[in-house]
Amino acid sequence: NAGVTQTPKFQVLKTGQSMTLQCAQDMNHNSMYWYRQDPGMGLRLIYYSASEGTTDKGEVPNGYNVSRLNKREFSLRLESAAPSQTSVYFCASEKGMWMNTEAFFGQGTRLTVV
Amino acid sequence: AQSVAQPEDQVNVAEGNPLTVKCTYSVSGNPYLFWYVQYPNRGLQFLLKYITGDNLVKGSYGFEAEFNKSQTSFHLKKPSALVSDSALYFCAVRDSYNQGGKLIFGQGTELSVKP
Question: Edge-to-edge strands of the sheet including A19-25?
Fold first, then answer.
């Protein structure tokens, strides 16, 4: 079982460059999330998608955009990377936010912006 | 707005002793509460959840958590700690007031269990 797959696992960007983090789940889940993890800050929600066709801002959306391409895929785009976006990014999915089911997480993308 | 706090950055316990990792929350409606664990260089894994019913919830790997509405707390416990329990633990909350509300995490608590 693949679960939640994130690509790439590691990335180094120069300030101002753009990139897209990919996330796909094979569990037929409706809801998907993007979080960033920073030391001492825990996990902070960037964007989420309650169901296919909808996306909403989380706690720290500035500097990011998302696309719910289909039910399986939820991508996160950095249009102009900044050093403050150096972090570990996690994608997660769950059956449905309204169902209070457990969330499944990918293994993370470690992004460094220099 | 919903929020969750883990007041301890680190908890140190000797193997075989009981452990407690603390979590407090703030929501407008009823809380839906979760605990997750993260091992080094891995994503988070679900441990247990409280939605409704018994205040004591049992989960994976011998962990349990106690929901206390008056103290707005959801502390994670285990009667006898193992070295392999050493990891980063996250509490998370969803607010019933916001139907289909997002999942918000605390800052995390590093648990270290020494032999």
Answer: A4-7, A19-25, A74-78, A64-68
Distance from CA of B101 to the nearest CA of A (A): 6
Q: Do A48 and B102 touch (CB under 8 A)?
A: yes
**Secondary structure string (H, E, C) spanning chain A:** CCCEEEECCEEEECCCCCEEEEEEECCCCCEEEEEEEECCCEEEEEEEECCCCCCEECCCCCCEEEEECCCCEEEEEECCCCHHHCEEEEEEEECCHHHCCCCEECCCEEEEEC
Contacts A108 to B, Cβ<8 Å = 41-43
Q: What mean pLDDT is predicted for residues B92-100?
A: 72
Query: Which residue of A48, A58, A107 is in closest CB contact with B43?
Result: A107
Q: How far apart are CA B64 and CA B32, in angstroms?
A: 15
d(CA A75, CA A52) in angstroms, rounded, equals: 13
| Per-10-residue mean pLDDT, chain A, length 114 | 90 97 96 93 92 92 96 97 97 87 93 97
